């Protein structure tokens, strides 16, 4: 119990780094940038909206919705899990787990997966919402569990990776890891293939494990902790890992963005960056939401910066997502911004939720789904 409390306290302390806009040298915190006036080139049309429980809740949760086929799944911090038709928003089923959900949603292979603050992973039937199984893990789950149909892999706040049988929830293996002294509140979600379970760690490393036995296949350090204080040495990988073909893209807090060969972990290129929410890829570019609030486009072949939009500084941006010819990000006031993939200028803006939009927008074809902090889930298309 002492270890669990130590890591919870560490997470709370480290979150203070984000609150000051990552400016440890500044004596006075700068306010969020005012929204710039833009000339709308693209208009978003709301197709439907629905309220999902209390949304992200009181804590810094990152409960992103997920799509499997034509169904959209979303969860709230107070335990509400909802399945909807993604085109109409009509509810297929709804379950109240009556538990504090903090990791989710994972969906695929007939399962809907969430994790809780109480250290449980719960698998629901994707068709009916009935509980298939639940399993106890070592500590709170702050990211979506992932499955390849054979195993469910979850990363816990204490940096352990645990594989559960996808049919029964019984433990297959556990990978023990020593987390950093001080960490941000959160973890990235594992990326699963048939052969590998890949995860980013609080130490700034990426590790790939054999899905059957949990044995390391490769390990690669992406960021080296620097600085005299533990706050300065935080290099968590909390943003999503992105697998595209044979390349794995990853970004750390106070470290680097890197492209790694997925089979060997060998770096193809690296570039200085700092992000706690993640990145996106499209049109031959990698898009990173930097911790200070800028959005940067990086050429995925040469790792050179193509553009950097700094107009949303300190607005607590979500991870980016590629939507049509644009890059979409949410902010703390609840706006969804569209930026041109070509040069990063603003092309559109839509207000989603007055309490903010923290989680990455979800894009499926020509539809984009934005999930606000208060629980407002909105489906939009380009008019």
TrEMBL record:
It comes from Aquipseudomonas ullengensis. SMART domains: PQQ. This is Outer membrane protein assembly factor BamB. The keyword Membrane applies. InterPro entries: BamB, PQQ_b-propeller_rpt, PQQ_rpt_dom, Quinoprotein_ADH-like_sf, WD40/YVTN_repeat-like_dom_sf. The gene is bamB. It comes from the Bacteria. Part of the Bam complex. One of its GO terms (cellular component) is cell outer membrane. It is found in: Cell outer membrane. It is a lipid-anchor.
